[in-house]
Amino acid sequence: MEKQQGYRVAVVGATGAVGEKMLETLEKKDFPIESLTLLSSSRSAGKSITFKGEELIVKEATPESFEGIQIALFSAGGSVSKSLAHEAVKRGAVVIDNTSAFRMDKDVPLVVPEVNEADIANHQGIIANPNCSTIQMVAALKPIQDAFGMTRVIVSTYQAVSGAGTIASEELRQQSQAFLSGEELNPEILPVKGDEKHYPIAFNALPQIDTFQDNGYTFEEMKMINETKKILHSDALHVAATCVRLPFFTSHAESVYIEVENEDLQVSDVQQVLSQAEGIVLEDDPSNQQYPTPLSAAGRSEVFVGRVRKDPDNPKGFHLWVVSDNLLKGAAWNSVQIAESLIKNKLL
Amino acid sequence: MEKQQGYRVAVVGATGAVGEKMLETLEKKDFPIESLTLLSSSRSAGKSITFKGEELIVKEATPESFEGIQIALFSAGGSVSKSLAHEAVKRGAVVIDNTSAFRMDKDVPLVVPEVNEADIANHQGIIANPNCSTIQMVAALKPIQDAFGMTRVIVSTYQAVSGAGTIASEELRQQSQAFLSGEELNPEILPVKGDEKHYPIAFNALPQIDTFQDNGYTFEEMKMINETKKILHSDALHVAATCVRLPFFTSHAESVYIEVENEDLQVSDVQQVLSQAEGIVLEDDPSNQQYPTPLSAAGRSEVFVGRVRKDPDNPKGFHLWVVSDNLLKGAAWNSVQIAESLIKNKLL
User: Fold this and answer.
1) Domain extents for chain B?
2) Which of A64, B58, B256, B323 has the most CB atoms at less than 10 Å from its CB?
3) Residue B10 has pLDDT above 90, yes or no
4) Taking 50 as the threshold, does the pLDDT of residue B205 lie above it?
């Protein structure tokens, strides 16, 4: 058998929470790699990381770092993407960007492969990976939209701290220990590292993810609203979101209300479509207390759906509970899927 | 000044999570008491509890325990209420019942004093205290319903473990410690003590509160749906609920979507009405990151509302974030308020 061609890959933000999962995923899925370049800010440069048994040194990302790179996976924050993604493209790389820097740009496809893989073909050097909370929701909703038509989405999220980075996970761990020991909590990171006020996350719930916009919504909520419409190719779809940070480490959960076009639709119809959808696992058997939870979804790359039920009053309304590992399908795994699609469709 | 008349009060379930808060509330609000009888199951009988500096012994609740009692506050579970509430009424007591045993009975007023105090006048011996998650929601929604008309409610809850009793709080504490120490979790209580399966609550989220009904909704969700319509006197109101148990000890939070009758209504109109409503504290200033959280509401008897905003697509839609201490306004404080109203309106 002919040896599969390998690619020259760079991971920007290799030492972060998503970067770590990106490397785990490339290794686990045996992604075809000819050379792997690990990049980061100057702060983390010099660290060593083991990949497939080989020790690699993380280098500071500069425009020149991308010479000869074919695929650049960015997850080092929006400002790094804004300053370096175009430099990578200029040098011939295709950038898969995990930040919000370019997601709403008209020229940048925003892609969840199970949902809108065809959009990748329109790329002009940059492909955006959607926000973690958006990815799992649209993955669950697309099969329903295709089968039955969908007019409306209202989501309330239950989001893990790892979405705010390794430092947020560390803060939850430290605060939880302090709380249980009766010690004082000293919040410094959450809800938003760069924002003015910080609140305890241990044994608490914070209805703020990312900064507030002028309209009273947080940026996280606006991401879910705008990205969902873009990925599902439907400006007419009504979408509203409330995003809440909670004291668990991994996986986002979502209570999703949707309205479909057909009032005769039954729970079993929705379950049937979800059970056959790519990348979706239906875990929905109330009589056996079966439903997904953040802990049960952690470490897995699928999107789990349970608690499918019809609205008690609106025959077009349905409720779902959607859970997925925010660092895998919500970030690393979706990015690697995009890279695999680029290769498969000869779009590099 | 004439000394205020005191009443002969019994607390049934005095050693439980709500019972404890009931006694704290009676003491703190200086409720007029001539005699206080503490009752429980045989299991907890014999324990001693200090009330206003005096040591009281908890006795086993029997029909005869209620001889001479004027006000009986029940919070020892539905089966205790079902077997003893009528015995108490037969002996002349008015029962304020904190369980779900009688809430939907036509003859039993279901009361949140700020919302439907007048219903107390129709009591026939038993007045029901609504479910904790219902109380805080209807307290926030009633002023909006009165001022603007309301047609629809969709709620996703974020509920504290103390709603499942002291044993559930203890389970969260033990599991959290075990998780942080890298030890195995052995769930035995949550989501529902008497149900077949148990899942870890530490650093997790469980989309099941109370047992599942045949329609796929949990009993907690059906309580929110049915009780809300009864308390707000509106069978036509559309109500849907998703109830989720989360790893914090105190206060329930709720992401509430409502539809009002008037599409010209603005966020400031809703805020204005809430800021003047009895028992409500508006904490809503996104520009200063001001919003309520479970920790900030714990130990306080009001209902806190923040994150008021208009739906991005539906001009009749609004979103709110409602938080309150589930053991105080959600249980003990609301029960004591009902008792105060009975006295004030000479309904004993």
Assistant:
1) 7-129+331-344, 134-326
2) B323
3) yes
4) yes
Match domain A7-131+331-344 to its CATH number in 3.40.50.720, 3.40.50.410, 1.10.10.10, 3.40.50.300. Answer: 3.40.50.720
Among A198, A238, A252, A319, the active-site one is A252
Peptide bond into A191 cis (omega under 30): yes
pLDDT for position A94? 98
Helix B17-28 to helix B333-344 angle (10° resolution) is: 50
Q: How many CA atoms lie within 13 A of A228 on its CB side?
A: 30
B243 is catalytic: no
Give catalytic status of residue A132 as yes or no.
yes
User: How confident is the model over A338-342, as a mean pLDDT?
Assistant: 98
B18: Cβ contacts below 8 Å, ≥ 6 apart: B75, B98, B327, B331, B332
- Contact between A156 and B294 using a beta-carbon 8 Å cutoff: no
Q: Could you report the per-residue pLDDT of A228-263, keeping only the tens digit for each?
A: 999 999 999 999 999 999 999 999 999 999 999 999
Same fold: A7-131+331-344 with A134-326: no
Q: Helices (DSSP H) in chain A: which residue ranges?
A: 17-28, 78-90, 113-116, 132-148, 166-180, 219-231, 267-275, 294-297, 333-344
Domain spanning A134-326, CATH architecture: 2-Layer Sandwich (3.30)
| Alpha-carbon separation of residue B226 from B112, B138, B231, B242 (angstroms) | 15, 12, 9, 13
* Cα–Cα dist B153/B318, whole Å: 10
All residues of chain A having their beta carbon less than 8 Å from the beta carbon of residue B267 are 216
Q: Which residue's structure tokens are 């205290």? A: B129
Catalytic annotation, pick one of A123, A132, A198, A238: A132
Please check the confidence at residue A4 and state whether its pLDDT lies above 70: no
Chain mean pLDDT for chain B: 96
pLDDT of residue B5: 81
> With contact defined as beta carbons under 8 Å apart, do A297 and A323 qualify?
yes
Mean pLDDT for the stretch of residues A201-205: 98
Percent of chain A surpassing pLDDT 90: 97
Each residue of A25-78: pLDDT tens digit? Answer: 999 999 999 999 999 989 999 999 999 999 999 999 999 999 999 999 999 999
Q: Measure the CA–CA gap between B57 and B54, rounded to whole angstroms.
A: 10
CATH hierarchy code of domain B7-129+331-344: 3.40.50.720
Amino acid at B153: V
Contact between B246 and A205 using a beta-carbon 8 Å cutoff: yes
Residue B1 has pLDDT above 70, yes or no: no
**Rounded distance, CA A337 to CA A329, Å?**
9
Handedness of CA B39, B81, B89, B124 (dihedral sign): positive
Q: Report the C-alpha gap between A162 and A170 in whole angstroms.
A: 9
